[in-house]
Specification:
The protein has 621 residues and is α+β, with helices and mostly antiparallel strands. The protein has 16 helices and 24 strands. The strands form seven sheets. Strands 6-5-4-3-7-1-10-11-2-12 form a ten-stranded mixed β-sheet, sandwiched between helices. Strands 13-16-17-18 form a four-stranded antiparallel β-sheet, covered by helices on one side.
Length: 621
Amino acid sequence: MKTSYALKLTSLIAALVGTSCATEDAQQPLAASSRKPNIVFILSDDQDLHMDSLSYMPLLKKHLTDHGTTFQRHFCTNALCCPSRVSLWTGKAAHNTNVTDVNPPHGGYPKFISQGLNSAYLPIWLQDAGYSTYYVGKLFNAQTVDNYASPHAAGWTGSEFLLDPFTYEYLNATFQRNHELPVSYEARYSTDILAEKAYGFLDDGLREVAEKPFFLVVAPTAPHSNVHINEYIDGNFSEKSVIQSPPVPAERHKHLFAESKVPRTQHFNPDEPHGVSWISRLPKQNNTNTDFNDHFYRSRLRALQSVDEIIEGVTTRLEDAGVLDNTYIFYTTDNGYHIGQHRLQPGKQCAFEEDINIPLVVRGPGIPEGLTSNIVTTHTDLAPTLMQLAGADLRDDFDGTAIPLSTEGLQGAIDARQEHVNVEMWGIIMSEGNYGSVLYPNHTYKALRLLSKDYSYLYTVWCSGEHELYDLKVDPYEMHNLLTPELSDFTTTTTPGGVAEELTTEVFSSTSGSTAHMANNNTVVASMRHLVARLDSLLMVLKTCKARECTHPWETLHPDGSVRDLHDALHSDFDDFYETQQQRIEFTKCEKGYIAESEGPAGAKAWSVGARGGARWQDLV
């Protein structure tokens, strides 16, 4: 039975000799208008895709989903608020921004400032492109009532920022407008206050829209947990630093969804533990625990109702002003969320699908209506996308590529767009519910999410030396790690039951001409070594990549263009190159932030063909 399951889990290796990618992403033109489009960007906080939260937002469906395109394979590259937001607004991976935490010394607003990013992020570039820019809500963590003017966040025509230590207190928020002093709003519901301020800036933009387009960001904290910060955190976070509780809904929404529960999927509070590291040691939750977590879940859904109302408020005002047809509206979140999956208490920061695969819905001129796209997109793609919509030149140092938004562009991207997501995390993790709020150190890893129509993998290397590999085509809930924690090399295939064996799988029809591991009986003989060596080498490039290396990592490994995807890379000619010549990813030390010298070897080797046709390897600089 175990052997059969292993064969099923890895049957898609055979498909890897199929078609290769076609051309580069087609870029769609601006909408047919003489004026630059307006852009509204609504950014929720910690919103899940995999626990069906979008199904509880009817106004999102009415105004955006039904009139726009939903990107089903959109990912954050760091499942934590501040690093994810910095990547979103800079178009750079966290290892290039070096903002890797929510608090100093490795993250938060002070780190954003110290890295020089306050003069090199999206609002400044959009102002240079002729836009008025407005922001309401949470910008970054650790932007406080004490440091908000040291210096002020640059690039905003108008702003009202939520400030720590009150950012996550739904009934005790503090906002700071432009260069004015902070104002406390005790006993008032923060999302409703935020909505009023957002509509005010929208009115400002609409008054000048005939002469100048506007960019408006609306960033509520919902459905993030309610957090009371006991003390400023600067490198000394502990279980006593904060008090976390379920999000607080508006009074008008408290009665909703009384029967709703966290979806009881196969990986919800399983009988057997999953994963590696501290996750593999989590206890099964008892009924009292799961009942509370269901309450936590309902509180999230209720808190989202005020966000849903903002979507209608914004869309209605745009329509009444006659500019809706020349306005793009984006809806997404900073990272995903889990409650109970893999026995996890409420939280994020993992590489599991619940935490990294997140909502993205876009409506605007020229965007297909009611479409669901399966192209792979990430948060590092959003700054280039917004710049392109604004008619601005794209920067050479972007780690992402503009997302095609037209029908033609989306269709072309099905075969041409990248298949990979680079995921990274550093530091510590602590759950947000009433149970299991234990601080776990060494939550540092590098992960690769690789997916196409033929295969879907998550490969993770932890700073502890532990490895994970999940085949989501046949194990969509990531319950069966194909690599044991004790794995020291990649010489054998490891099944979920720990049985090592060689795999023989049936070949799918190939249009690429590849003959990777093809025998005379039309079968492919492939060991896990072949697959993991390719994944590890690809992740070796991505973990320190910059600019085009991040968007075209196979090109870094194969400068001659012979490999465009995992299909091509599995050709048997490359076995020695990947399995012998390349270094393996490893950490020398678990750090709380990005310390390059603690992350082992950097850079991969590049394949090239010599003048006489012989193969050789070159070290990448």
